[in-house]
Task: structure prediction
Amino acid sequence: MLLYQTALYLAVEKGNLEMVKLLLTNEKIDVNIVCTLNKKKEGKKKIIEMTPIQLALYNNNEKIVHLFLSNNYSALSHKVDVNLMATEVFIEDDIDA
Result:
């Protein structure tokens, strides 16, 4: 399994509201970094790419989504790119060339 995840992505994944709050106070944080997770299951590879806010939406974590868009982080809210697409791809492991 190959991972590319930021600290913010991991905090969102764990639902750690306090850590998300702390990380969002950093003016240099890039909330639009697309994180990658590769999983292998039943002969298929699953590649998932999404941003931390997309993960919060996917997990129905309204509190964390609200943090991303709240006035408390107004400098951040205009940086959130809601037009980025999340992707989920399945690949067969045994592909004949």
